[in-house]
Write a structure and sequence with these properties.
Helix content: 25-40%
Number of helices: 12
Number of domains: 2
Number of strands: 15
Strand order of the largest sheet: 1-11-10-9-8-2-3
Structural class: alpha+beta
Order of helices and strands: EHEEEEHEEEHHEEEHHHHHEEEEHHH
Oligomer: single chain
Strand content: 15-25%
Length: 384
């Protein structure tokens, strides 16, 4: 039984039971919790670890947690991490090599079994981001076997968004605030005079099986209506928007815009936006050895297109200026990603805005580029 054929209402006791049921099935449950002044993703062993009663205050280059009076667990926007941290780890050993007494090298591939994760609290924008990474890393002729193994074993509990943050723009990217598939369980949190409860529905056979083990009540029509109204209202309260134009065309037609000089004057090329982005996937290889020279390892680690060495060739880096590196990131994310993978690389989560140390806002840049194009200004100098 899948889809909305299996629905129910669970309370906070059901949320606690959900964590226990998933753990009993051998899964490592990862979800949001309050830690070090932020709502972060971490392993959960008990329902009390969820950030009940905490929300967030977001702006460009600004993040603060704040207490809430309603005790909601999921009324907060995307935090500093994404599920990419677990499906596509920041650093991963690929092989190790040891030199024997005869001088010969023995190379051993790292074949550590993948963990069986259960992700609790996946926002619609992040659910879309996982689907984007699936196309990049698990599809096509050059799929990543390690990513695919982790993804195939993952159980996804999505939570619809009822309170977007000031930097959210998922509606502009068609990535929320409602879920539209790709989950094992979906939840919509409702806190009102009727109590604190979650409208739950299964999206897979395993999701239906897990839901059946939880303390629950039938999903009554009035609660379902309230839940849907809250999600629909969230769509009208996004803090940011993208211009209502074809972004792929906009990026292609503004490669020489003066606006790139403006953003380059502010950008630190630190790469925070790529590290926080839930869809950025680039990696580099790093070889290390011990002091004896008898043991070596190769690690794969995240890489950023803002790194000067990212496009280094014998003649030097292809993109030497900050302008060219920011332009590459933005035009790929919003434009040429379509050419490679058939969709946008942006899901509107707003992380790149929040975690930029100088508050550069990709939606502001897109609007500025669109305004410059509409004004018909002459092209700016195209600095390589």
């Amino acid at each position: 039984m899948t889809g909305e054929a299996s629905t129910a209402v669970i309370g906070t006791d059901g949320m606690a039971a959900l964590i226990q049921v998933l753990a009993a099935r051998g899964r490592t449950v990862i979800g949001p919790t309050l830690r070090d002044g932020a709502i972060v993703l971490a392993e959960l062993t008990d329902g009390d670890e969820l950030p009940y009663g905490w929300g967030v205050e977001l702006e460009a280059g600004h993040y603060r947690v704040r207490p809430r009076g309603d005790g909601a667990a999921f009324a907060h926007s995307a935090g500093p991490q994404s599920w990419k941290t677990y499906l596509h780890p920041q650093r991963e050993r690929q092989w190790s090599a040891d030199r024997g007494s005869d001088g010969a090298w023995a190379v051993t591939e790292d074949d550590t079994p993948p963990p069986s994760y259960a992700f609790l609290g996946v926002r619609p924008c992040d659910l879309r981001a996982i689907a984007v990474q699936d196309r990049v890393l698990a599809g096509g002729p050059h799929s990543d076997s390690r990513y695919r193994a982790r993804r195939e074993r993952a159980f996804l509990v999505a939570v619809e968004c009822t309170e977007p943050g000031a930097t959210c723009f998922c509606t502009s990217m068609g990535a929320g605030p409602a879920v539209d598939g790709g989950y094992d369980l979906a939840l919509t949190e409702v806190v009102d005079g009727g109590g604190h409860r979650f409208w739950a529905r299964a999206g897979s056979d395993e999701g239906a099986s897990v839901l059946a083990e939880l303390p629950q009540l039938p999903a009554d029509a009035s609660l379902v209506t309230v839940a849907r109204e809250k999600v629909a209202a969230a769509a009208d309260r996004m803090g940011r928007t993208m211009p209502e134009v074809d972004l792929q065309v906009l990026m292609r037609e503004t490669l020489d815009a003066d606006r790139w000089n403006d953003v380059a004057a502010r950008c630190l090329t630190c790469g925070n936006c790529t590290m926080a982005c839930p869809t950025c996937f680039c990696t580099s290889a790093e070889d290390v050895t011990d002091l004896t020279g008898d043991h070596a390892e190769r690690w794969r680690r995240w890489e950023s297109c803002f790194d000067l060495e990212f496009t280094h060739l014998p003649g030097g880096p292809v993109r030497a200026s900050g302008r060219s590196r920011y332009r590459q990131w933005a035009t790929h994310k919003l434009g040429t990603w379509y050419d490679q993978f058939g969709s946008s690389g942006c899901v509107g989560c707003g992380r790149c805005i929040v975690w930029c140390p100088v508050g550069i806002d990709i939606t502001e840049e897109a609007h500025a580029l669109n305004a410059e194009r509409a004004a018909g200004d002459g092209p700016g100098e195209d600095t390589p």
